[in-house]
Task: structure prediction
Amino acid sequence: MKTILVVDDEQNIRFLYKEELEEDGYKVSLAATGAEALKMLNKQIPDLIILDIKMPGMDGIEVMRKIKDEKGDIPIILCSAYGQYKQDFRVWASDAYVVKSADLRELKLTIKEIFNQLKAG
Amino acid sequence: MTESSLSLEILQEVTRIANSTLDLDETLEKIIQVIKNKMHIDACAIYLINESDGLLHLKASMGLPEKAMHINLAIGQGVTGWVAQKGTSLALSEAMQDPRFIYFPEIEEEKFSSMLSVPILADCPPLGVINVHSIERRVFSLEETSVLETIASQVTGCLKNAIQFHQNQMTLKETRILYDISLAVQSTLKLEHGLWIILSAITMGEAGGFNRAMLFTLDEKNRQLQGIMGLGPDSHEDAVRIWTELDKKKGDLLKWAIKEAQHDLHRDSPFHNFVSGLKYTVTPNDNILSETVLQKKPFNITKAKEHPLVSQEFIDALGVDSFATVPLIAHEEVLGVILVDNRYDQKPITEENLRFLTRFTVYASWVIENSRLFSKLLDTNRELLSMKEQLVQAERLSALGEMAAEVAHEIKNPLVSIGGFARRLKDKMTNLAQKWEDNDDLKSAANYSGIISSEVERLERLLKNTLIYSKSGTLETEECQLNKLIEEVLYLFKAGLYEKNINLVTGLEADIPLLNLDQQKIKQVLINLFYNALESLSIGGLLRVETFQEEYAQKQKMVTVRVEDTGGGIPQEVFENIFNPFFTTKHTGTGLGLSICRKIIENHGGTIRVENQLGKGVTVYLHLPLQNSPDYYKN
Result:
């Protein structure tokens, strides 16, 4: 079973993602802050990380840099409420970038694509 | 009286003269008195050789008409010239009968029958000649000749002193004129006024006394000499009028010129307009003005018609056969050329004239250089101000958009939850309704959830369409060298850095690839950063500007601009708000401008980071991407 770590400061969104993704057959763990996420990574490396960009304290981009620098190339999907980070080159270091929506189909499709690519590669 | 006692007496008298005055004219007058007393003659004249033209000038006389004072003789010309040339005395009882004699009506020599002429021998050539004339026919005895020769030899010393003193006086005067001019020139920063003062001095007798002066400036880029000012009379009549006027103002010419400079009267002169229309390309072996620029030395052209670098056209335009050109040089760079001539009095241009002019042009060069620097300073100040103004303007405009975006962001997250759970609710209700054999209540509840979810979708679309993150203007990017851009902007701050005693250290990495940038906008960012640094460095310090290439998260290549100052850092409460447009704009009216900088950098796909070390300084990092966005971001 593929494991996914969801990092978002909004409790309800974490809950929503967990419900939806578990329904699709993934094992989901949750972190409310970047620091918490990094701590969790010390114990276990998930197959994919979904990272919210705008979070208090360490933002998602910074968390991503730390992960990529320290933990190696774990696939990361960055999320934000709007598309404003699309042009930030730092975001380009992620494996995908999805604008948050109540409609989770795009996010799910992106997850599938990444796992398919990993399988192919 | 014996010859030796006479010569002793003369020596005493001469010593008395030498002790009483150093003034040349006065010395000469007194010598003439001595001669008159000793020799009982009707007229006496002392000619001295002028150093600059080598002619014998009548410097003092007694018993000769006033108009005789203008007489100049070449060595070898006439009796006087002959004596000067041979260095031997000549006594003539029938002067006018002598073949060497040349008649000058100014001296009214027909009055006199006999003359005695002795050289004033110092070294070779002689200093001059003393002539005595007698109306009655008289044979000057050997003894008398010997007396005059004694006088001549005795006065040599005090004459030499007086001449030396006179020369010193002239040098002093020249120095004073140069000093006055430099003061005058410093008093105005308007190029035109400064140049007018310079050209006035060149054409006003006092400092050169040329009839006309023309000024050309060199356009370094196009290698062209452009006439920009001409000063001088437009015709003979005009020349006479001007000289008469100048004569009346004697003594205060310079003050007059400085005052006159304000009126811009020269602009109406046809000569000025003629000069303004002249333009020459600087090419080797083409024309004399070009040669002056290329060889960086003055030219004194005496036979223009025969000169290979002077065209007939040029001669016709100037209307002279002799002129001189002098380059204007500042910091070893030729700025232009001054051309002078004596069209109206046809006086030859002596080497002395030219030397003085050359010294003088140093001032003209300063004027041009100062004015250039000053106008550059004005331009850069203006540019800085307008850029700063634009930045403030943009910042204020974007503040509103920023706030809207902020609010929208706060709305978006709950919307995602509401919509997300409404969708889930709808799905669950639909499933349940089926399980419970199409329970109507459950069907309705599923329907209501569907309404919530579709309304949320509508809101999401609305937010997306109205707030696709308000971009602050579109970028006009082109490939450019970041380092060059930084150097250009730093150049604008040159004066400010110097003024505040700020030590600028740059470490711009060579081989930084070309970046796609909106140069104008990136310039604004840099200006803003340097401005902030300068403001914090009010008592001097260090400003370090570096560029280097880096990797980001092991994946992205980027270029970083690092701007570090030692201005003590920003107070924590200010630092927390540096990217907040509201805070900064209401704080000082201009703010730090960092929020707009961030927007510009972000529009370039880059990011800005600020490190604040209280008590030390601020370091700003601009990270700009070196690669294009990955494919999945293209849409």
Residues 206 and 464 of chain B are 80 Å apart (CA to CA).
